[in-house]
Protein backbone atom coordinates (compact mmCIF):
# COMPACT_ATOMS: atom_id res chain seq x y z
CA UNK A 1 0.00 0.00 0.00
CA UNK A 2 1.25 3.47 -0.85
CA UNK A 3 2.39 5.38 2.21
CA UNK A 4 -0.31 7.69 3.50
CA UNK A 5 1.46 8.97 6.56
CA UNK A 6 4.57 11.14 6.41
CA UNK A 7 4.31 14.61 7.87
CA UNK A 8 0.58 15.12 7.30
CA UNK A 9 -1.44 16.50 10.17
CA UNK A 10 -3.42 13.25 10.04
CA UNK A 11 -1.54 9.95 10.10
CA UNK A 12 -3.55 8.26 7.37
CA UNK A 13 -1.74 4.94 7.73
CA UNK A 14 -2.71 4.87 11.39
CA UNK A 15 -6.30 5.77 10.46
CA UNK A 16 -6.46 2.72 8.19
CA UNK A 17 -4.83 0.39 10.70
CA UNK A 18 -7.14 1.62 13.46
CA UNK A 19 -10.21 1.01 11.32
CA UNK A 20 -8.83 -2.41 10.38
CA UNK A 21 -8.58 -3.41 14.03
CA UNK A 22 -12.06 -2.35 15.11
CA UNK A 23 -14.28 -2.74 12.03
CA UNK A 24 -16.56 -5.76 12.11
CA UNK A 25 -16.82 -7.75 8.89
CA UNK A 26 -20.62 -7.68 8.65
CA UNK A 27 -23.32 -10.35 8.46
CA UNK A 28 -22.27 -13.95 8.10
CA UNK A 29 -22.55 -15.45 4.63
CA UNK A 30 -20.95 -18.50 3.09
CA UNK A 31 -18.23 -18.15 0.49
CA UNK A 32 -20.61 -19.20 -2.26
CA UNK A 33 -23.23 -16.71 -1.03
CA UNK A 34 -20.62 -13.94 -0.99
CA UNK A 35 -19.60 -14.66 -4.57
CA UNK A 36 -23.23 -14.70 -5.67
CA UNK A 37 -23.96 -11.39 -3.92
CA UNK A 38 -20.96 -9.68 -5.51
CA UNK A 39 -21.94 -10.97 -8.95
CA UNK A 40 -25.55 -9.86 -8.50
CA UNK A 41 -24.57 -6.35 -7.38
CA UNK A 42 -22.31 -5.97 -10.41
CA UNK A 43 -25.14 -7.12 -12.67
CA UNK A 44 -27.55 -4.68 -11.02
CA UNK A 45 -25.10 -1.80 -11.46
CA UNK A 46 -24.79 -2.62 -15.15
CA UNK A 47 -28.55 -2.89 -15.60
CA UNK A 48 -29.14 0.29 -13.61
CA UNK A 49 -26.97 2.32 -15.95
CA UNK A 50 -29.35 1.77 -18.87
CA UNK A 51 -32.44 2.38 -16.70
CA UNK A 52 -31.05 5.64 -15.29
CA UNK A 53 -29.86 7.01 -18.60
CA UNK A 54 -33.16 6.23 -20.31
CA UNK A 55 -35.19 7.85 -17.53
CA UNK A 56 -33.02 10.97 -17.14
CA UNK A 57 -32.07 11.52 -20.77
CA UNK A 58 -28.45 12.04 -19.72
CA UNK A 59 -25.76 10.74 -22.04
CA UNK A 60 -23.00 8.32 -21.19
CA UNK A 61 -20.19 10.87 -21.25
CA UNK A 62 -16.63 10.18 -22.33
CA UNK A 63 -15.40 8.35 -19.23
CA UNK A 64 -16.24 4.77 -18.36
CA UNK A 65 -15.81 4.70 -14.60
CA UNK A 66 -15.47 1.39 -12.76
CA UNK A 67 -17.97 -0.25 -10.45
CA UNK A 68 -16.38 -1.88 -7.39
CA UNK A 69 -18.14 -4.15 -4.92
CA UNK A 70 -16.20 -3.75 -1.68
CA UNK A 71 -16.27 -4.82 1.94
CA UNK A 72 -16.20 -2.35 4.81
CA UNK A 73 -12.43 -2.03 4.89
CA UNK A 74 -12.40 -1.49 1.16
CA UNK A 75 -14.70 1.46 1.69
CA UNK A 76 -12.43 2.79 4.46
CA UNK A 77 -9.29 2.62 2.33
CA UNK A 78 -10.97 4.26 -0.62
CA UNK A 79 -12.19 7.15 1.50
CA UNK A 80 -8.88 7.64 3.28
CA UNK A 81 -7.22 8.02 -0.11
CA UNK A 82 -9.95 10.39 -1.26
CA UNK A 83 -9.85 12.55 1.87
CA UNK A 84 -6.10 12.79 1.68
CA UNK A 85 -6.25 13.95 -1.93
CA UNK A 86 -8.90 16.60 -1.28
CA UNK A 87 -7.36 17.89 1.94
CA UNK A 88 -3.75 17.87 0.74
CA UNK A 89 -3.55 21.60 -0.16
CA UNK A 90 -4.93 22.61 3.26
CA UNK A 91 -2.67 20.14 5.05
CA UNK A 92 0.38 21.41 3.17
CA UNK A 93 -0.39 25.01 4.09
CA UNK A 94 -0.90 24.15 7.75
CA UNK A 95 2.22 21.99 7.82
CA UNK A 96 4.24 24.92 6.49
CA UNK A 97 2.73 27.20 9.10
CA UNK A 98 3.51 24.82 11.96
CA UNK A 99 7.09 24.18 10.78
CA UNK A 100 8.04 27.69 11.83
CA UNK A 101 6.85 27.19 15.40
CA UNK A 102 9.17 25.98 18.20
CA UNK A 103 8.78 22.22 18.43
CA UNK A 104 6.40 22.29 15.48
CA UNK A 105 7.65 19.05 13.91
CA UNK A 106 7.25 17.10 17.16
CA UNK A 107 3.80 18.55 17.75
CA UNK A 108 2.77 17.60 14.24
CA UNK A 109 3.94 14.02 14.68
CA UNK A 110 2.13 13.56 17.99
CA UNK A 111 -1.00 15.34 16.82
CA UNK A 112 -1.16 13.42 13.57
CA UNK A 113 -1.13 10.08 15.40
CA UNK A 114 -3.85 11.09 17.83
CA UNK A 115 -5.97 12.41 14.96
CA UNK A 116 -5.21 9.32 12.89
CA UNK A 117 -6.72 7.12 15.58
CA UNK A 118 -9.83 9.28 15.82
CA UNK A 119 -10.28 9.41 12.04
CA UNK A 120 -9.89 5.63 11.90
CA UNK A 121 -12.65 5.29 14.49
CA UNK A 122 -14.86 7.70 12.56
CA UNK A 123 -14.40 5.80 9.31
CA UNK A 124 -14.98 2.47 11.03
CA UNK A 125 -18.26 3.84 12.37
CA UNK A 126 -19.38 5.03 8.94
CA UNK A 127 -18.16 1.92 7.12
CA UNK A 128 -20.95 -0.17 8.62
CA UNK A 129 -23.66 2.27 7.50
CA UNK A 130 -22.88 3.32 3.94
CA UNK A 131 -24.65 1.22 1.30
CA UNK A 132 -22.95 2.74 -1.70
CA UNK A 133 -21.02 5.78 -2.81
CA UNK A 134 -19.87 7.43 -5.99
CA UNK A 135 -16.31 8.31 -5.08
CA UNK A 136 -15.97 11.58 -6.94
CA UNK A 137 -12.38 12.34 -5.99
CA UNK A 138 -10.87 8.90 -6.43
CA UNK A 139 -7.06 9.11 -6.60
CA UNK A 140 -5.10 7.27 -9.24
CA UNK A 141 -3.85 4.19 -7.38
CA UNK A 142 -5.31 3.41 -3.96
CA UNK A 143 -5.18 -0.15 -2.70
CA UNK A 144 -8.58 -1.78 -2.38
CA UNK A 145 -9.46 -5.24 -1.07
CA UNK A 146 -12.46 -7.33 -2.10
CA UNK A 147 -11.95 -7.02 -5.81
CA UNK A 148 -11.07 -3.33 -5.73
CA UNK A 149 -8.78 -1.77 -8.28
CA UNK A 150 -7.72 1.69 -9.29
CA UNK A 151 -9.85 3.78 -11.55
CA UNK A 152 -8.60 6.43 -13.92
CA UNK A 153 -7.17 9.42 -12.11
CA UNK A 154 -9.90 11.96 -11.53
CA UNK A 155 -12.53 9.79 -13.19
CA UNK A 156 -14.31 8.64 -10.04
CA UNK A 157 -15.73 5.20 -9.37
CA UNK A 158 -18.83 3.60 -7.92
CA UNK A 159 -18.52 1.66 -4.67
CA UNK A 160 -21.20 -0.77 -3.47
CA UNK A 161 -20.63 -1.99 0.10
CA UNK A 162 -21.90 -5.56 0.01
CA UNK A 163 -21.99 -6.37 3.76
CA UNK A 164 -24.06 -3.29 4.53
CA UNK A 165 -26.54 -3.94 1.75
CA UNK A 166 -27.06 -7.49 3.02
CA UNK A 167 -27.38 -6.24 6.60
CA UNK A 168 -30.08 -3.68 5.75
CA UNK A 169 -32.09 -5.98 3.49
CA UNK A 170 -32.21 -8.52 6.33
CA UNK A 171 -33.06 -5.86 8.90
CA UNK A 172 -35.92 -4.52 6.78
CA UNK A 173 -37.03 -8.02 5.78
CA UNK A 174 -37.37 -7.08 2.11
CA UNK A 175 -36.77 -9.06 -1.07
CA UNK A 176 -32.96 -9.21 -1.52
CA UNK A 177 -33.00 -9.05 -5.33
CA UNK A 178 -35.30 -6.03 -5.36
CA UNK A 179 -33.43 -4.19 -2.61
CA UNK A 180 -30.04 -4.66 -4.25
CA UNK A 181 -31.35 -3.31 -7.55
CA UNK A 182 -33.04 -0.41 -5.75
CA UNK A 183 -29.77 0.59 -4.07
CA UNK A 184 -27.89 0.24 -7.35
CA UNK A 185 -30.35 2.61 -9.05
CA UNK A 186 -29.64 5.35 -6.51
CA UNK A 187 -25.87 5.02 -6.67
CA UNK A 188 -25.81 4.64 -10.44
CA UNK A 189 -27.64 7.96 -10.68
CA UNK A 190 -24.68 9.62 -8.98
CA UNK A 191 -22.27 7.97 -11.41
CA UNK A 192 -24.42 9.17 -14.30
CA UNK A 193 -24.47 12.71 -12.93
CA UNK A 194 -20.70 12.95 -12.99
CA UNK A 195 -19.96 11.03 -16.18
CA UNK A 196 -22.63 12.85 -18.19
CA UNK A 197 -21.71 16.29 -16.82
CA UNK A 198 -17.92 16.52 -17.29
CA UNK A 199 -17.50 19.90 -15.62
CA UNK A 200 -19.27 18.90 -12.40
CA UNK A 201 -16.34 17.20 -10.66
CA UNK A 202 -13.91 20.05 -11.32
CA UNK A 203 -16.52 22.56 -10.21
CA UNK A 204 -17.08 20.78 -6.90
CA UNK A 205 -13.36 20.44 -6.28
CA UNK A 206 -12.72 24.10 -7.01
CA UNK A 207 -15.49 25.12 -4.61
CA UNK A 208 -14.09 22.89 -1.85
CA UNK A 209 -10.57 24.17 -2.38
CA UNK A 210 -11.79 27.77 -2.45
CA UNK A 211 -13.54 27.22 0.87
CA UNK A 212 -10.51 25.57 2.47
CA UNK A 213 -8.23 28.22 0.99
CA UNK A 214 -10.11 30.92 2.86
CA UNK A 215 -9.57 29.18 6.20
CA UNK A 216 -7.00 30.72 8.51
CA UNK A 217 -6.99 28.41 11.51
CA UNK A 218 -4.23 27.47 13.89
CA UNK A 219 -3.19 23.85 13.18
CA UNK A 220 -3.61 22.79 16.81
CA UNK A 221 -7.14 24.21 16.84
CA UNK A 222 -8.09 22.40 13.63
CA UNK A 223 -6.69 19.12 14.94
CA UNK A 224 -8.75 19.49 18.09
CA UNK A 225 -11.89 20.18 16.05
CA UNK A 226 -11.19 17.17 13.85
CA UNK A 227 -10.85 14.97 16.92
CA UNK A 228 -14.03 16.34 18.48
CA UNK A 229 -15.92 15.75 15.24
CA UNK A 230 -14.65 12.18 15.15
CA UNK A 231 -15.58 11.64 18.79
CA UNK A 232 -19.07 13.02 18.22
CA UNK A 233 -19.63 10.64 15.31
CA UNK A 234 -18.51 7.61 17.26
CA UNK A 235 -20.31 8.67 20.41
CA UNK A 236 -17.13 9.03 22.49
CA UNK A 237 -17.37 11.92 24.91
CA UNK A 238 -21.00 12.49 23.97
CA UNK A 239 -22.79 10.17 26.38
CA UNK A 240 -26.22 11.50 27.24
CA UNK A 241 -26.19 14.24 24.62
CA UNK A 242 -28.12 12.30 22.01
CA UNK A 243 -31.04 11.79 24.34
CA UNK A 244 -31.02 15.47 25.24
CA UNK A 245 -31.14 16.62 21.63
CA UNK A 246 -34.41 17.34 19.88
CA UNK A 247 -35.84 15.13 17.12
CA UNK A 248 -34.22 17.23 14.42
CA UNK A 249 -30.90 17.50 16.23
CA UNK A 250 -31.80 20.80 17.88
CA UNK A 251 -29.38 21.72 20.59
CA UNK A 252 -26.54 19.68 19.09
CA UNK A 253 -23.10 20.82 20.12
CA UNK A 254 -19.76 20.00 18.65
CA UNK A 255 -17.41 21.64 16.21
CA UNK A 256 -17.06 21.18 12.50
CA UNK A 257 -16.19 22.85 9.25
CA UNK A 258 -18.86 25.46 9.91
CA UNK A 259 -16.52 26.81 12.61
CA UNK A 260 -13.99 27.57 9.88
CA UNK A 261 -16.43 30.01 8.28
CA UNK A 262 -14.81 33.35 8.93
CA UNK A 263 -15.75 35.48 5.92
CA UNK A 264 -18.81 36.25 3.81
CA UNK A 265 -16.95 34.60 0.92
CA UNK A 266 -16.80 31.30 2.81
CA UNK A 267 -20.49 31.49 3.65
CA UNK A 268 -21.32 31.97 -0.02
CA UNK A 269 -19.25 28.94 -0.99
CA UNK A 270 -20.79 26.82 1.76
CA UNK A 271 -24.29 27.77 0.62
CA UNK A 272 -23.46 26.77 -2.96
CA UNK A 273 -22.03 23.44 -1.81
CA UNK A 274 -25.14 22.78 0.25
CA UNK A 275 -27.33 23.51 -2.77
CA UNK A 276 -25.44 21.26 -5.17
CA UNK A 277 -25.34 18.37 -2.70
CA UNK A 278 -29.09 18.73 -2.15
CA UNK A 279 -29.57 18.67 -5.91
CA UNK A 280 -27.45 15.54 -6.40
CA UNK A 281 -29.05 13.59 -3.55
CA UNK A 282 -32.57 14.69 -4.39
CA UNK A 283 -32.08 13.85 -8.06
CA UNK A 284 -30.90 10.36 -7.11
CA UNK A 285 -33.99 9.81 -4.95
CA UNK A 286 -36.27 11.13 -7.69
CA UNK A 287 -34.74 8.86 -10.31
CA UNK A 288 -34.78 5.87 -7.99
CA UNK A 289 -38.49 6.35 -7.35
CA UNK A 290 -39.19 7.06 -11.01
CA UNK A 291 -37.45 3.96 -12.34
CA UNK A 292 -38.31 1.72 -9.39
CA UNK A 293 -41.97 0.86 -10.13
CA UNK A 294 -41.08 -0.49 -13.57
CA UNK A 295 -38.16 -2.71 -12.55
CA UNK A 296 -38.44 -3.30 -8.79
CA UNK A 297 -41.70 -5.17 -8.01
CA UNK A 298 -41.65 -4.49 -4.26
CA UNK A 299 -40.45 -0.88 -4.50
CA UNK A 300 -43.36 0.54 -2.49
CA UNK A 301 -42.62 -1.74 0.46
CA UNK A 302 -38.88 -1.02 0.26
CA UNK A 303 -39.38 2.75 0.11
CA UNK A 304 -41.78 2.74 3.05
CA UNK A 305 -39.53 0.63 5.26
CA UNK A 306 -36.34 2.39 4.23
CA UNK A 307 -37.81 5.86 4.77
CA UNK A 308 -38.95 4.84 8.23
CA UNK A 309 -35.48 3.52 9.00
CA UNK A 310 -33.84 6.67 7.62
CA UNK A 311 -36.01 8.87 9.83
CA UNK A 312 -35.73 6.87 13.04
CA UNK A 313 -32.46 4.96 12.82
CA UNK A 314 -29.91 7.47 11.60
CA UNK A 315 -30.29 10.26 14.14
CA UNK A 316 -26.80 10.17 15.59
CA UNK A 317 -25.15 9.86 12.18
CA UNK A 318 -27.08 12.76 10.68
CA UNK A 319 -26.44 15.02 13.67
CA UNK A 320 -22.76 14.14 13.50
CA UNK A 321 -22.63 14.99 9.81
CA UNK A 322 -24.14 18.37 10.55
CA UNK A 323 -21.45 18.96 13.16
CA UNK A 324 -18.70 17.89 10.83
CA UNK A 325 -19.87 19.53 7.60
CA UNK A 326 -21.83 22.50 8.84
CA UNK A 327 -24.42 21.87 6.12
CA UNK A 328 -28.12 20.99 6.26
CA UNK A 329 -28.84 17.56 7.64
CA UNK A 330 -28.49 14.89 4.99
CA UNK A 331 -32.13 13.95 5.43
CA UNK A 332 -33.09 17.50 4.58
CA UNK A 333 -30.87 17.35 1.50
CA UNK A 334 -32.74 14.29 0.29
CA UNK A 335 -36.14 15.81 1.00
CA UNK A 336 -35.56 19.35 -0.28
CA UNK A 337 -33.55 18.21 -3.27
CA UNK A 338 -36.14 15.63 -4.32
CA UNK A 339 -38.92 18.21 -4.02
CA UNK A 340 -36.92 20.66 -6.17
CA UNK A 341 -36.37 18.08 -8.92
CA UNK A 342 -39.96 16.87 -8.84
CA UNK A 343 -41.48 20.35 -9.07
CA UNK A 344 -39.16 21.45 -11.88
CA UNK A 345 -39.89 18.28 -13.86
CA UNK A 346 -43.62 18.85 -13.35
CA UNK A 347 -43.29 22.38 -14.73
CA UNK A 348 -40.72 21.93 -17.49
CA UNK A 349 -40.40 18.19 -18.11
CA UNK A 350 -37.19 16.19 -17.84
CA UNK A 351 -35.62 18.02 -20.76
CA UNK A 352 -36.32 21.35 -19.09
CA UNK A 353 -34.95 20.10 -15.78
CA UNK A 354 -31.75 18.94 -17.47
CA UNK A 355 -30.89 22.58 -18.15
CA UNK A 356 -29.56 22.40 -14.60
CA UNK A 357 -26.52 20.52 -15.95
CA UNK A 358 -25.62 23.17 -18.55
CA UNK A 359 -22.98 25.01 -16.51
CA UNK A 360 -22.23 26.12 -12.93
CA UNK A 361 -24.40 29.16 -13.64
CA UNK A 362 -27.50 27.00 -14.06
CA UNK A 363 -27.07 25.10 -10.80
CA UNK A 364 -29.72 26.12 -8.26
CA UNK A 365 -28.83 28.34 -5.36
CA UNK A 366 -29.60 27.32 -1.80
CA UNK A 367 -32.67 29.55 -1.86
CA UNK A 368 -33.80 28.13 -5.21
CA UNK A 369 -33.64 24.59 -3.82
CA UNK A 370 -36.38 25.67 -1.40
CA UNK A 371 -38.19 27.73 -4.05
CA UNK A 372 -37.99 25.84 -7.37
CA UNK A 373 -40.15 28.42 -9.13
CA UNK A 374 -37.33 30.94 -8.72
CA UNK A 375 -34.92 28.66 -10.56
CA UNK A 376 -37.49 28.08 -13.34
CA UNK A 377 -37.99 31.85 -13.70
CA UNK A 378 -34.25 32.49 -13.80
CA UNK A 379 -33.20 29.71 -16.17
CA UNK A 380 -36.47 29.64 -18.15
CA UNK A 381 -36.23 25.97 -19.14
CA UNK A 382 -38.58 24.76 -21.84
CA UNK A 383 -39.55 21.13 -22.30
CA UNK A 384 -38.84 19.55 -25.69
Automatic annotation (TrEMBL):
GO terms for molecular function: metallopeptidase activity. SUPFAM superfamilies: Metalloproteases ('zincins'), catalytic domain. InterPro entries: CHP03883_F420-assoc (IPR022454), Zinicin_2 (IPR018766), Zinicin_2_N (IPR042271). Residues 230-254, 363-384 are annotated as: Disordered. Keywords: Hydrolase, Metalloprotease, Protease. The keyword DNA repair does not apply. PANTHER family: HYDROLASE (PTHR39420:SF1), PTHR39420. NCBIfam families: DUF2342_F420, putative hydrolase. This is Zinc-dependent metalloprotease. It comes from Streptomyces johnsoniae.
Amino acid sequence: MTSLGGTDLVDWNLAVSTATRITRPGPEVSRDEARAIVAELRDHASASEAHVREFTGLGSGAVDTPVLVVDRLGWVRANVAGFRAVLQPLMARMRERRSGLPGGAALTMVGSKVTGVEVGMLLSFLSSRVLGQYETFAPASPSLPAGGGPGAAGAGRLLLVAPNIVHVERELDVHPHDFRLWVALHEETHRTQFTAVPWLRDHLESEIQAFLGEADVDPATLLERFRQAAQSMTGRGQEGQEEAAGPAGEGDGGLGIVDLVQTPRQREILDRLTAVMSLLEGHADFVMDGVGPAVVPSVAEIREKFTRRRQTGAGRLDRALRRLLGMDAKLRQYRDGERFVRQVVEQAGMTGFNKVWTSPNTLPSKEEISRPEQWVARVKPTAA
